[in-house]
Amino acid sequence: MSTPNPTPSRPVGGHAIVYGGSMAGLVAAGVLSRLFERVTLVERDRFEDGPQPRKGVPQGMHIHGLLTRGMNILGDVFPGFREDLEAAGAQCLDMTGDHAWYMSGLWRPRLQSGVYLHAQSRPLLEWVTRKRLLALPNVRLLEGREVTGFLTSADHSRVTGLQVRAPGGGEEQTLEGELVVDASGRGSRTPQWLEALGYPRVEETRIHVDVVYSSRLVRMPPGFKPGWKMLNIAPELPRQRRLGTLVNIEGDRWLISMCGWLGDHPTLDDAGYLEFARSLGDPYLHDVLRHTEPLSPITVFRFSHNQRRHYERMPRFPEGLALVGDASCSFNPVYGQGMTTAALQAWLLGECLRQGQGGAAQRHRQRVGQLLEVPWSLATSGDLRFPEVEGRRAPTSGLLNWLGDRIHRLASHDEEALRVFVRVMHMLESPTVLFSPRMVLKALTARPDAAALKRRPEPISVPQSRAA
What global pTM score does this model have? Predict the structure, then answer.
């Protein structure tokens, strides 16, 4: 599914400024490069010449999923992006054909879905994207600069640029532009800066989940050929709260991430890490992991809460300002929606600007508010299944959770249901297709066959010298 984003016959503006050089900012700057004569990307960090971790992306050493919808947008913004990513070592995986997937207490069928996931480290993904962006002749990078506030018109009705300086102090300089895009992440200071300009404080919704990720790089033993390139052991919510994923990435390495809700996470010693893998819904990941060679320390990332800033509800909002990515909405990373949702917000910004700069900020914040309803609901409805998680639950949530569990089980043996589920997961279809009369009837009446109960992958067989 492509997301066409045609270039207008002439620019809609002279200069656009994006601050925040992570994936949301990179894609937004790419979209704006087709619409403005000049684009400046401002980033607090200084980038390495290569796929290196950086301070501004503390989650960068953990597994990241760029869903098919997000990859389609990147391919439209940067033609040839997929090919560049694969040439750099990324693995292109069929979401079910190359995926050993345990969910809802059952192993899912291995079949070709035609929905693909590119597996690579987060530093590689950012590096390839950044190289494509900075190769554009009208894009300039201003790195090693932090933003300290907005420039505005005299009546504060329009944002006209940014004040920037070297991190930690130093002389301030100003950047003027017709559009400013905040892609600075969860720590965005736009709420405080707008309030200081006389705007009301944006409403926020927070749902605390205290998810902790623990990840490391490993190498498989010689001759390891399991028939899959990604392994996922998902919990049965809310009875279980631990998840483990293993995926083949660039450099013939494998990246493992294990996590748990509500502060539940593995200890950082090798024995405790293995024991956590054994405790998952199925111990198969443990069987694999005990044969691997560690290539890195175990790194930890803590995600405290889902956070949504409701800019669409503000009665007043300045022109010349837009927000994308975690600056407006940050999801539990377990669900893998963040980068794709950020790419969709950037694409929507382009659509709004094509209708003219006048009113673009208002159109964008309203359309983003609509866009976020589905991914926010999908993420938070899963988290709210835990009784300990505080938040508003819809009166129908119990029924929908029960029916959703039936559909998950249906996908463990019904190929049509599995393909539909994967397309919904990758934002290629609306979740409503999972609750069509046909699918609901199948979920209520079908029973898994015996094979669905015994679809566990074959035991790992490696030379005895490598076994633990």
Answer: 0.94
